[in-house]
Amino acid sequence: MTESRQGQKWWVMAAVALGVFLSTIDGSIVNLALPVLAREFGAEFAGVQWVVLAYSFTIVSLMLIATRLGDRYGKKRVYLAGFVVFTLGSLACALSSSVGVLLMGRVLQAVGGAGLVALGAAIVTEAFPPTQRGRAMGLVGAFVSVGLVSGPSLGGFILAALPWQAIFLVNVPLGVLGAALTLRFVPSGLPVRGQPFDWRGALLLIGTLLSFLLAVTLGPRAKEPSILLVAALLVSVMGMLAFVKAERAARFPLVDLDLFSRSDLSVNVLTGWMAFVATSGLVLLVPFFLQDLQGRPPAAAGLLMAVPPLVMGLVSPLAGWLSDRVGTRPLATLGLGVTMVGYLLVGGLRLDTPAWEYLLRIACLGLGMGLFQAPNNSAILGAVPRQQLGTASGLLSLSRLLGQATGVGLVGAAWAALTHWLDPTGASDPMLAPLDVQRHALAWTARGLALFLAGGVLLALLRWHRERLAPVGT
After folding, report:
1. Which of 119, 154, 180, 218 is most deeply buried (CB count within 10 A of its CB)?
2. Within 13 Å and on the Cβ side, how many CA atoms surround 247?
3. Residue 473 scores a pLDDT above 50
């Protein structure tokens, strides 16, 4: 490799790292601002919840579409368009005068973010030689993790010093810088012709996800099952069945379902999805606990929420190193179990819980996810042939994003439903219920997540048992 190519690959990495960081951090940085946005616009919980849901849903539904567009029209072109659209969406969010306008800006952000998430890993793979791709992909994964977990704490610092619009305006100069780096350093590449786009599968996936998110958002607000709620549930189930059928029949499907015939891959993808469902859902609710229930300012809440990512960042490199020596399954299973215990500990939080006790309880979540994520990702990439590593990488992103979207909708809905059920005053909005009622609902939601993850631990243990009985070829 020439010296110019040697230097250019790191500029490519900088462009991809910036894009991945921006697109992932915006999935979580808004969480800490939800109480502020609810007060600013006079909106209910379900309304401001869609500020997060709209972003997560749009990225999930468009990510695979962006991947196909990159193959057809060139990855650089689609990635550059992603930066431009994301930056314009951020500006639109900052200028919003209502929740409706803010939601439209969030959708525009996510349209651009989908291209950044989908194509970043592929661009890095093309820029680095085969002997350095593992190192390069590790750096991309690190920026994904940093973006996911630093959002709440960074949002707290911004909200403490500046108006809420600043959490969106900060993206504008970074987006312009990312676009400039992409335009200058990312190679154009050659688009792949002759592969028709699976529009049928894409539309079915979008419809299925939208119906599911509508169901989990409308469900807790309904006093009794409504026609819209039942229809949304039925459409989501029928849409998923139709999507599977369409993908099996498609010549160039969005998702290669044959990969899931490998039980090791299926278990790893499923447990990864379960972990992100639990993590993303609780990240949605903890800001309300720290600010509205305990009365902490945004900056203090942001610092307290930074503890799990800090622990995770310290533990993850060690977990990756250990997994190369003892295997991925033991550490991934242990990490999922520790995360489960962490949610049980979170279920014991009280209105008067001091900061030091909160830190001890919440740090267990970071320890568990740090032990789980790196070995689980390694197991997924090691479960497929080398020629299908790109597909496996896409499944990693898809399971993470689906987990985020599902977690925000499902866990938020569960908390709201529990609050309505426990509230003797019958408040129309769960945020208007007595503080102790909201705290009890959060506790039972955390315990429910622990039970949910217990199913993942059981799956991992069963797969580990099978691997010990037949370690080769299963």
Report:
1. 119
2. 20
3. no
